[in-house]
Design goal:
The chain is α/β, with parallel strands linked by helices. The chain is built from 14 helices and twelve strands. The protein binds zinc ion.
């Protein structure tokens, strides 16, 4: 009796009533609650949710509800079929469960919220359901969230790659990195130009036009696609990769010049200068500092390249009003979210399928709106 009172309080469904509560005779554990349609209430079509004339009733089905005091609770109900004037004879809409699932929506919500805190298999163990039931529960909340999320305010995104399957396979991830909302927006297999093109296709032209900032590393296939697709966006590249390019270029100039100088019979001014030129002057050792000073007195290509790089360093200290507003976006934000994603992948056992991984990541990092449940159980 107590169980029925609680259910009427927290989980009342319009047009349905809870009948008797019975204890499963075979196990002596499960509580089974019969549900019946309220008298004179009409069933609704599960396709369009319109009230329709009744047709017949199907055999009874059991639906797992949230256990109480670790005692399994099941709903027992014989679904009606309706004769909808649009969809013909179809099964009625059930407010507590969806489709063929034997788990109540409330139970799926409950399991999915636990799966954010502990591993999927631990949740399965704890509540006596299968791993597939956990996946089904997460799919339910994530699908709902993806369908109902609001993407109209996305102005800043970060693009990154992530290793899946012990480092040999990659996925491309796109995050929203606006100050008020940081979350996973999209994930696609591979890290090719084609992959990122798919994101822009899914995201749509209008939304893409509203993007103002894109942070990415200097992976060439991404850069090309970003330049082509996100025409209104500034592509913020990270400092580390830009300086690495400068250093690579400087080293190339030094090597070529060094070879040429020694071929022409000059004294080896550039010998053993690779690290002297690569380092910032303030990081040189006491031995290296005089070498640099001497080197700078020569009017050679390598020196000019070195000075160019040092000039560019000042760019990082340069702060204009425009730059200040853009500075809130950096690859650091992207890397922080990506570190979380990597953790999810690492702690995920049994996520061999890309599809499963995708759901796991959206569940953890998607910042998705949750389905409306009368009572949160949490
Ligand atoms: Zn219908």
């Amino acid at each position: 009796m107590l169980l029925k009172t609680i259910l009427n309080r927290i989980q009342h469904y319009k047009g349905f009533v809870y009948k008797s509560v019975q204890i499963d005779q075979s196990t002596g554990r499960e509580r089974i609650i019969d549900i019946e349609p309220r008298k004179n209430s009409r069933a609704t079509c599960s396709k369009c949710c319109k009230k329709s004339p009744g047709y017949d009733r199907l055999p009874e089905r059991l639906f797992m509800f949230v256990p109480m005091w670790s005692i399994p609770v099941l709903f027992r109900y014989r679904p009606r079929r309706v004769n909808c004037n649009v969809h013909g004879v179809v099964v009625e809409h059930l407010p507590w469960a969806k489709g063929k699932s034997s788990l109540c929506n409330a139970f799926r919500f409950f399991l999915s919220q636990w799966a954010r805190l502990i591993s999927w298999s631990q949740v399965a163990d704890r509540f006596g359901v299968s791993w597939d039931s956990i996946f089904e529960s997460i799919k339910y909340v994530v699908d709902h969230g993806l369908k109902n999320r609001d993407l109209s305010e996305v102005q800043a995104i970060g693009v990154d790659e992530i290793a899946i399957k012990s480092g040999h396979k990659y996925a491309t991830v796109v995050y929203q990195i606006d100050a008020g909302c940081r979350r996973l927006l999209w994930i696609g297999k591979d890290r090719k130009a084609k992959t990122l093109l798919r994101f822009f296709h899914d995201f749509g032209k209008e939304r893409t036009e509203r993007i103002k900032v894109i942070c990415s590393d200097m992976w060439k296939p991404y850069l090309k696609v970003i330049a082509k697709k996100a025409v209104n966006a500034v592509n913020v590249l990270d400092r580390f990769h830009i300086m690495k390019m400068f250093n690579d270029a400087l080293d190339k100039v030094r090597r070529e010049e060094s070879a040429k100088l020694s071929k022409d019979g000059y004294e080896p001014v550039l010998k053993n200068t690779r690290w002297i030129l690569a380092k910032r002057p303030e990081n040189l050792t006491d031995k290296q500092r005089p070498r640099l000073k001497e080197l700078l007195s020569y009017n050679i290509k390598s020196v000019r390249a070195y000075l160019l790089r040092e000039d560019f360093q000042q760019f990082w200290e340069y702060v204009s009003h425009w730059f200040l507003t853009k500075r809130q976006y950096s690859s650091g934000i992207v890397e922080a979210i990506n570190a979380n994603a990597k953790m999810t992948i690492r702690t995920a056992h049994g996520f061999r399928q890309f599809e499963t991984l995708k759901y796991a990541l959206f569940h953890k990092l998607g910042g998705l709106p949750l389905p409306q449940i009368n009572h949160k159980f949490f």
